[in-house]
Specification:
The chain has 236 residues and is mainly alpha-helical. Helices cover 73% and strands 0% of the residues. The N and C termini lie far apart (163 Å). It is found in: Nucleus.
Length: 236
């Protein structure tokens, strides 16, 4: 009788153990899923925060960041070359390939092509762009003005600007020096005169003058001797 009861207890014990193992396996999977859900929630929150930070940054922040990193690398390279007693510009040129140099020159020409003189408005625009590129803002002075005037530093349509700004002595001297440079450069160029006062007058009107110039350009070297004989009065 006892053996029969033991045989009946064994399947029930095995079934209970299997059920317990299955329950433990389900609980383990549930804990893993719970941990993965918390980890995904944490990562999503971090990504939302980073995206909000990127959205608040300026539009060209990535380009500025890359530019600053490049400038830091250049400074480190300059220090290394100075420590070795080498010329940085020479080392930089040695590292540039011929293809990169040609591509850089093409990009440079495309960026600032010399179109020559087309009209006075275009020449004035190019002069304005050249002068504005030379301007170096004084950030220290800007901060002082911002502390002094506050919101009044940024005028609106209702702001009264006339007579409120007094330029500094350094700014006036800088403007005067720049104007003197422009005058000095302008004096080096002479206006092309339509007529040469010292040239011989061999025409009766403007149309005839153009014809004579064209004839001189094509046949002048063949008729130079004849012209000289006629002027000396020794022509046969």
């Amino acid at each position: 009788g006892s053996s029969d009861s033991e045989d009946e207890a064994r399947p029930s014990t095995a079934a209970a153990a299997a059920a317990l193992q299955k329950r433990e396996e389900r609980l383990r999977k549930f804990r893993e899923l719970h941990m993965k859900r918390n980890e995904a929630r944490k990562l999503n929150h971090q990504e939302v925060v980073e995206e909000d930070k990127r959205r608040k940054l300026p539009a060209n922040w990535e380009a500025k960041k890359a530019r600053l990193e490049w400038e830091l690398k250049v400074e480190e390279k300059k220090k290394e070359c100075a420590a070795r007693g080498e010329d940085y510009e020479r080392v930089k040129l040695l590292e540039i390939s011929a293809e990169d140099a040609e591509r850089w020159e093409r990009k440079k020409k495309r960026k600032n092509p010399d179109l020559g003189f087309s009209d006075y408005a275009a020449a004035q625009l190019r002069q304005y762009q050249r002068l504005t590129r030379q301007i170096k803002p004084d950030l220290e002075q800007y901060e002082k003005l911002k502390e002094q005037y506050g919101e009044a530093l940024y005028p609106t349509s209702d702001s009264l600007l006339h007579g409120t700004h007094v330029p500094s002595r350094e700014g006036v001297d800088r403007m005067v020096a720049d104007l003197e440079k422009q005058i000095e450069k302008r004096e080096k160029y002479s206006r092309r005169r339509p007529y040469n006062d010292d040239a011989d007058i061999d025409y009766i009107n403007e149309r005839n003058a153009k014809f004579n110039k064209k004839a001189e350009r094509f046949y002048g070297k063949y008729t130079a001797e004849i012209k000289q004989n006629l002027e000396r009065g020794t022509a046969v």
